[in-house]
Amino acid sequence: MPERTESESRRLLGRLRDAMASDEAGQARLNKITHLIADSMRSEVCSIYLFRDDVTLELCATEGLKPESVHQTRMKLGEGLVGRVAKSRQIINTPNAPGAKGFRYMPETGEEVFSSFLGIPVQRLGEALGVLVVQSREAREFSADEVYALEVVAMVLAEMTELGAFVGEGAALSARHQQPVLIRGTTGQEGAAEGHVWLHEPRVVVANPIADDPAVELKRLQNAVEELRVGVDKMLDMAAIGDKEQRQVLEAYRMFANSKGWMRRMEEDIARGLSAEAAVEKEQSLARSRIGQAQDSYLRERLSDLDDLSNRLLRILTGQGSETGAEMPADPILIARNIGPAELLDYGRSLRGIVLEEGSVGSHAAIVARALAIPLVVRAGRIISEALNGDHVMVDGDQGVVHLRPDDSVVTAFRDKIAMQADALERYASIRDKPAETRCGAVIGMHMNAGLMADLPSLDGSGAEGVGLFRTELQFLVRNKMPTRTELAALYARVLDAAHGKRVVFRTLDIGSDKVLPYMKPTDEPNPALGWRAIRVGLDKPGIMRMQLQALLRAANGRPLTVMFPFVAQFEEYRAARAEVDKTIAREKRLGHVLPETIEIGAMLETPSLAFAPQKFFDEVEFLSIGGNDLKQFFFAADRENERVRRRYDTLNVSFLSLIEKIVERCAISNTPLSFCGEDAGRPIEAMCLAAIGLRTLSMRPASIGPVKSLLRRVNLDEVRQVIADARHRGDMSVRPAIMEYLRAQG
Questions:
Q1: 364: annotated active-site residue
Q2: Hey, what domains does the chain have and what are their CATH numbers?
Q3: Tens digits of residue pLDDT in 37-67
Q4: pTM for the full model?
Q5: Which of the following is catalytic: 364, 403, 447, 667?
Q6: Of 60, 667, 677, 689, which one is the catalytic site residue?
């Protein structure tokens, strides 16, 4: 078999371009393409298999196999040689297909007479779309040049599929980006929202994958790369001199932007017949596939740099992206792979909802979304490849579900849900100023969690009696450098002003674990949730703690001040932190600053060890707040960021409730005020059970206060306590079934 020449490759791509430009229906185009490829490759068979769903491939067109097998032959991912190519996204090139591992005999196609097999994955930027196959009777291995030519053709097929070239009468494919899609993710923030897609980083669509004139395309590429290099150099010039890590990233960018190998490969792709955009995207697809296979974290980061540079280059070539002047819709649902807290704050409350392909329930973005009360779904797989700017979308943060381009029945049901929630909000508004007093006469204090100035208007609107937790780390996380003492003091003063005399519990800096400051060198820890974080960082870096304490004392300016230390695991840590407070107060007094009217110093109980601290600890600490999220994950040894285990363990588990009761009893002995803070405090049934076992103060997100208060005002805690006791006596693992039965009986 003679080698392909570059002119022959260009000729094939030219014929493909003509097929794509024809007015024929999608199936006719597919049929013509398989004929063109088989003829050009001098092979008896060319077949195109495309995904029918996530795990099923369908034979959509063939030259050489039995025509009646088209749209009838299907196989699962990993099944047969075609399925192996689709699953591994690796080329299979064998002269003895029947003897190859995984070969599947398909009598309906008649393929058993063909010895040679070359399977090429059809994929676009890491998204598998199908498999392109050529076969011949002659037992031979296809040459490297033939393989390369088919890779180029497969990439063009992917682009044509993206552009909807195969949609039409008789075709297997539905129009991409037009059909309803249901995507399941994980709840990051409850709530329901309807709107239209706004992509944080719009995907570039390559409309001209095949070059008309390679010389023109080569010049376009060279000009775009030069513009890219100039842009990277400007970023380096603007980078802070002292920001070593930022400069290292940009130096890596410059290295890739000036890579002769990268440029040479793209020039070769253009010589073979690809447009400048398609050449860039071909290299980007290779980088994406290598990212998934790379074990070394450094290599993954460098491949990600190349991926990002390719996006920049594509935007220069196509003029697509945020610079095109596209207007954000009036009801934007933000779609992103991931997003930092500062970027999210830039959008502010204009967003109706947020959907992230990556992210986690404890991420910075989730913290900000909760603060802004914006429904959030994280780990929504494929959302980036499925969504287009302006698509109609519905976000169900309660269920962790996204309806993209929903059909009428989904729209109706979803709008009914939103209407029901609106009705419920009206009911909650009617009891906003009433106490959370149960039928048995117990009064539960309802406080809210906050972390941004934007949260504080909810203090009055939600009916919260105070701020049970103000997360001070958000002000550190959203900046590129450490805030000054003066800046922090001004912020904390504004928080106290906005509270209008209501109690605000300031939690000192809780960084580490999933909350790493942009300007702080990250520590490579195998289990960061159990590592150097929160109070441990504060005690090891007392300068940061003192600076924050000074800012809080000055912000109070004669008003009452409440400070809480996070993640205290043993008595000694609380005493050491308390000593820092006393030293800071003494210093402020010497400097002549006005001291707070009163100072309360407490701790968050987030580790089981602190529940069993000496009683002397409970005597000395001025108040305690149970950090339910962390306490539960450590109690059950179940990482709350791990979807495989986080939902296995129930807050209403008898063992966990027994631990909470133990804490309640120990605080009662010392007359120490106790509250419960966390997601479970904002869930009505869980909140009711916590109140039944003795907790009298709950702190939650503002939107949860109404639902929790509504239920508490309708129940008798004595009865709930008896239901819990009976379940424990029976040996029930969880009290939830008994509680649900009790509530149903109560109507």
A1: yes
A2: 6-162 (3.30.450.40), 181-202+328-421 (3.50.30.10), 214-323 (1.10.274.10), 436-745 (3.20.20.60)
A3: 888 888 888 898 988 777 888 888 888 888 8
A4: 0.66
A5: 364
A6: 677
